[in-house]
Amino acid sequence: MHITIFKKIKDIKKDHPLFIASLFLWAAITAAVILMYGQDMATAAGSGVFTVLILYMSYHLLKNYTPAFMKIYKNLILTASVTAMSVMIIMLLRYMPGIPASSAYLFPAAAAGILLTILIPATIVAGAAVILISLIASVLGGYSFNYFFVYMAGGLVAVFSARDVRTRRDLNRCGLHILVFNIFSILAVELMSPSAGSASLEIMGINLAWGGINAFVSVVVAGGLLPFFESSFSITTNIKLLELGDFNTPLLKRLMLEAPGTYHHSLMVANLAENACEQIGANPLVARVGSYYHDIGKLTNPQYFSENQQGIDYKHDKLKPNISALILKRHVKDGLALADEYNLDQIIKDMIAQHHGTSLIRFFYDKELNGADERDKVEKKEFKYPGPRPQTREAGVIMLADSVEAGCRSLDEPTYSRITGLVEKIINMKFTEGQLNECDLTMAGLEKIQKNFVHTLSGIYHSRIEYPEDKEEKAVE
Question: Is this prediction's pTM over 0.90?
Answer without folding.
Answer: no
